[in-house]
Predict the structure.
Amino acid sequence: MRPAWPGGLWAGVDVLRLYPGTAARLHVALRWGLFPFGALLPFVPESGLAVDLGCGHGLWPLLLARARPGLHIHAIDPDADKIALARAAARAANLSNIQFFVGTAEEAALPPCHLISLVDVLYLVPWRLQEQLLARAAGCLVRGGRLLLKEMSERPRWKARWNRVQEFLSVRLLRITWGSGFYFREGAAWEALLRHLGLRTWTVRLDAGRPHPHLLLVGER
Ligand SMILES: C[S@@+](CC[C@H](N)C(=O)[O-])C[C@H]1O[C@@H](n2cnc3c(N)ncnc32)[C@H](O)[C@@H]1O
């Protein structure tokens, strides 16, 4: 029987074993521990095409591919090393409904799709490009299709400050994350942007008991 990896510590242990090498496993273990990927599953359809932009090591698309075998998934990231690791993990998990590509979100081909996700990515994309990308994404969703935009809230302040320190370390100092600047927006500004694009929009806080102010915006066409 296929475990669904819905989240939690033991699911995380199963997932990190798919990755080759200690460095990748450490990174993936940390990421799995910091964000409850399984909390996104209630917002995704059973079938159709899903595109994950800025997939990193591919944790979210792997979980999605396992939990929703009826979905076909395209996952894209500009970091070729992370994509190589994500492909290795998908092979190890025997998942055939997922394809990984190297590229930026701005340049990615977006066919008509049922789900587009951006999990902690847009804050690395300049504001003007964010707007263009979101407009293109909204236009590619089929009727009833959803955009999942995971960003960080500005509240509470202590969580937002902690997030900025960590981002400074991983993007600017240690260069673990691909990117050169930060382009944060307040939750209300993201919400207004998605509404302006004609999407029925709501927000869900995912930070109870966690140090980061995780905020999910769902936009439905
Ligand atoms: C914080 S990581 C999140 C990775 C993954 N979505 C996750 O939740 O584990 C940010 C990711 O955004 C990617 N990224 C940076 N700039 C990007 C861009 N312009 N287009 C797409 N992805 C980008 C980085 O390579 C990195 O993998």
About this structure: The two ends are 35 Å apart (CA to CA). Residues 86 and 135 are 28 Å apart (CA to CA). The chain has one domain: 9-220. The helical segments are 9-16, 22-34, 59-67, 80-92, 127-140, 157-173, 187-196.
